[in-house]
Amino acid sequence: MTDPTDLTRRSILTLGSAGAVGGALALAGCAADAPSETTSPATTPSPTVTDEPTTEPPSAAPVGEDIVALADVPVGGSIDATINGEPALIAQPTAGQVVAFSAICTHQQCVVAAAGAEFDCPCHGSKYDATTGDVINGPALEPLSAIPVAVSGDRIVATS
Ligand code: FES
Q1: 104 C-alpha to ligand 1 centroid (Å)
Q2: What is the sign of the dihedral through the CA atoms of 109, 83, 114 and 98?
Q3: Pocket of ligand 1 (CB under 6 A)
Q4: Which residue of 72, 90, 107, 120 has the fewest CB atoms within a 10 Å radius of its CB?
Q5: pLDDT tens digits for the chain (160 residues)?
Q6: Region 66-158: CATH code
Q7: Where are the domains of the chain?
């Protein structure tokens, strides 16, 4: 037997041979055969592309290098550390509040060491306040450079 769809297409093509109107009908007949092919690919990739931009902004938190566990820095004290490959000092003046400084002495660039609530330079004896980085005793005159850090969960992370 003959498929009814073929009969319809054959009838349209026969009518189409009579003029331009038939050509338009023939095109309409072809389009009716392929709706599943044109709609499927168009709907499948769209949700995937749309999902990526909506999930990216919320996860873009200003968190940098993981440095050390918060528990490793004594409250009221300080530790030697490395931040972005450079010697640094981290202090926790009060529970959960952290500060960090470059460990490069502002006098003649020796590496300053953590010493509880102070930072001490071994070269010429300068002492810095571990909470502020300010000079307690010279010969250094300028404070240590602050490094932005934050607490993220139970970790201390650089924020720059
Ligand atoms: S280099 Fe630190 S006190 Fe001189």
Answers
A1: 9
A2: positive
A3: 105, 107-108, 110, 121, 123-126, 139-140
A4: 72
A5: 444 444 444 333 333 333 333 333 333 433 444 444 444 444 444 444 444 444 444 444 456 889 999 999 999 999 999 998 999 999 999 999 999 999 999 999 999 999 999 999 999 999 999 999 999 998 999 999 999 999 999 999 999 7
A6: 2.102.10.10
A7: 4-58, 66-158
Query: Is residue 5 classed exposed, middle or buried when 0-12, 13-18 and 19+ CB atoms within 10 A define those classes?
Result: exposed
Atom of ligand 1 nearest to the CA of 121: 2
Residue showing tokens 């009060």: 94
Q: Which 3 state secondary structure label does DSSP give 17?
A: coil
CA 32, 33, 36, 37 dihedral sign is: negative
User: Does residue 62 have a cis peptide bond before it, meaning omega lies within 30 degrees of 0?
Assistant: no
- For the chain, what's the residue count? 160
Q: How far is the CA of 52 from the centre of ligand 1 (A)?
A: 52
Tokens 């932005």 belong to 148
21: left (phi over 0), alpha (psi -120 to 50) or beta: alpha
CA distance 34 to 9: 13
Question: From the alpha carbon of 124, which atom of ligand 1 is closest?
Answer: 3
- Cα 145 to ligand 1 centre (Å): 14
